[in-house]
Design goal:
Elements: H1 2-17, E1 25-28, H2 34-37, E2 42-45, E3 48-57, H3 61-78, E4 86-93, H4 96-100, H5 103-107, E5 117-122, E6 131-140
Length: 141
């Protein structure tokens, strides 16, 4: 009985010492100016894609929301992804009430009601003063 306990203890100890290979990280650049600012538009870890915030402006929030989701759709498509692969969305807006009025525009981006976990935050300023919103995504292939 004692040898069985020692063997089980040794097996548990060895199991805890195993190492897994580090996840490969790939940084994808979409725009030539990204290096000047110091970021990557998309960072891929395994089958997870972290999409940096896309900022959009326009005459109003309807235009800004439409433009942002169109651009995000193009970024997803580069990696053979769709909105159905999106698991997390963060939106930063200068006016949260104006953003809330565009929920129907946002919903057209997500097919068949496959919505991600989401966070919406009002901020006082985005990178460029003319931008109204910024949307970042996490998607899984």
């Amino acid at each position: 009985m004692r040898s069985i306990i020692i063997c089980l203890f040794a097996a548990l100890l060895l199991a805890g010492c195993t190492q897994t290979a580090p996840t490969k990280i790939t940084r994808h650049t979409i725009n030539s100016w990204e290096a000047d600012i110091g970021y990557a538009a998309v960072v891929q870890t395994g089958n997870t894609y972290h999409i940096s915030g896309v900022t959009c402006g326009g005459a109003n929030y309807q235009e800004a929301v439409s433009v942002c989701y169109k651009e995000l759709g193009g970024i997803l498509a580069r990696y053979q992804l769709t909105s159905q692969n999106v698991i997390k969305e963060n939106i930063y807006a200068l006016d949260i009430e104006a953003l809330q009025q565009q929920i129907s525009v946002r919903k057209t981006f997500y097919v068949n009601g496959q919505y991600p976990a989401a966070t919406w935050v009002q901020v006082s300023r985005l990178y460029s003063p003319e931008h109204l919103i910024e949307i970042e995504l996490i998607a899984v292939k």
